[in-house]
Amino acid sequence: MQFSTKEDIEASMADAFALFADFDQFERSALRRGAQVRRTDSLKRKDVGMC
């Protein structure tokens, strides 16, 4: 199953990317809802290949 959507917003591309790439916020939101979150990589900071 695949979902997609599109909505035009009044924001620069950099601002929009920063909003959608705020993984710390997604993690906190998931934890508040009872999800178990763990890193599966050994990176110490945000970088290519993190998961």
Key descriptive features of the protein:
2 helices, extended, mainly alpha, single chain, 51 residues
Descriptive report:
The chain has 51 residues and is mainly alpha-helical. Helix content is 35%, strand content 0%. It has helices at residues 13-20, 23-32. The radius of gyration is 14 Å and the shape is extended. The two termini are 22 Å apart.
Task: Please sum up the structure shown.
35% of the residues lie in helices and 0% in strands. By secondary structure, it is mostly helical.
What shape does the CA trace take? extended
Q: Count the strands?
A: 0
Task: Supply the number of helical segments.
Answer: 2
Largest sheet features? none
User: What structural category do the secondary elements indicate?
Assistant: mainly alpha
**Order of helix and strand elements from N to C terminus:** HH
- Average pLDDT, to the nearest integer? 87
